[in-house]
UniProtKB/TrEMBL annotation:
Transmembrane feature ranges: 12-39, 45-64, 71-89, 101-122, 143-160
Organism: Methylocella silvestris
Cellular compartments per GO CC: membrane
Membrane recorded as keyword: yes
Membrane topology annotation: Multi-pass membrane protein
A single GO molecular function term of this UniProt record: monoatomic cation transmembrane transporter activity
Keyword field: Membrane, Transmembrane, Transmembrane helix
Keyword Membrane tagged: yes
Domain named Cation efflux protein transmembrane: residues: 14-183
Parts forming coiled coils: none
Protein name: Cobalt transporter
Subcellular location: Membrane
Length: 198
C-alpha cells in the first residue's frame, strides 16, 4: 500500500467516525421533534459512515473488487430515500411542524460536521475511483442538504408548517438518488476497465 493509500485510510476512518457520531445525535433529535428532513439526513450520516468504513477496508483490494464495492455503495446511497419515505408517511398521519429552533441548530451542527468531512475528503476525490468518489459526493451533498435544512428551520420559525421540512427531505432523497447514479456509473466504468486489463 502506498503512502497516499495510508493517508486516505486515515482520512476515511476519521470521516466514518465523525459521521457515525453525528448520526446518533441527529437521529435522536429527528425522532424527538418529528422532522422528515432530519430523519433523511440522519440516515445519510449512517450511510456515509458505512461508505467510509467500506473504503477503509477495500483500499488494498484489486480494481475489480473495488468496482464491486462501488456498485454496492451505490445501493447504500439509496438508504436515505427509503428513510424519508417512511417518515413522510408518518408525517401525513400527524402533520405537526417540527420544532424550528431544534431543526435549525441541528442543521447547523450537521453542516459543520459535513463541511469538515468534505474538506478532509476533497484531496482524495479522484483516488481509487468509485470508492472515494462515493465518499466525496456524499459529503458534498450533505453540506448542500444542511444549508436547506437550516433554511427550512428558519422558514418554519417564520410560518409554522410541515412543508419546508417535507420539501427539504424530498431534496435530500433526490440528491442521494443522483449520487447513487454517479457512483454506479463510475463503478461500472472501473469494472469494465478491470475486465479489459485482465
Amino acid at each position: 500500500m502506498t503512502d497516499e493509500d495510508n493517508r486516505l485510510r486515515r482520512a476515511v476512518r476519521l470521516v466514518a467516525l465523525l459521521n457515525l457520531s453525528f448520526f446518533g445525535v441527529e437521529f435522536a433529535v429527528a425522532l424527538a421533534i418529528g422532522s422528515v428532513s432530519l430523519i433523511a439526513d440522519s440516515a445519510d450520516f449512517l450511510e456515509d459512515a458505512a461508505i467510509n468504513f467500506l473504503i477503509f477496508a477495500a483500499l488494498g483490494w484489486s480494481a475489480a473488487q473495488r468496482a464491486r464495492v462501488g456498485m454496492a455503495l451505490a445501493a447504500i446511497l439509496l438508504a436515505p430515500a427509503l428513510a424519508f419515505l417512511w417518515m413522510l408517511w408518518q408525517k401525513f398521519g400527524a402533520p405537526v411542524p417540527p420544532n424550528a429552533g431544534a431543526l435549525t441548530l441541528t442543521g447547523m451542527g450537521a453542516f459543520a460536521v459535513n463541511l469538515l468531512c468534505a474538506f478532509i475528503l476533497a484531496r482524495f476525490r479522484h483516488h481509487s475511483g468509485s470508492l472515494t468518489k462515493a465518499a466525496f459526493l456524499s459529503a458534498r451533498n450533505d453540506v448542500l442538504a444542511n444549508v436547506a435544512i437550516i433554511a427550512a428551520g428558519f422558514a418554519t420559525l417564520y410560518a409554522p408548517s410541515v412543508w419546508p421540512d417535507i420539501l427539504v427531505g424530498l431534496g435530500v432523497a433526490l440528491m442521494n438518488l443522483d449520487a447513487a447514479r454517479s457512483v454506479w456509473t463510475a463503478a461500472r466504468s472501473e469494472h469494465r476497465l478491470a475486465r479489459a486489463e485482465a
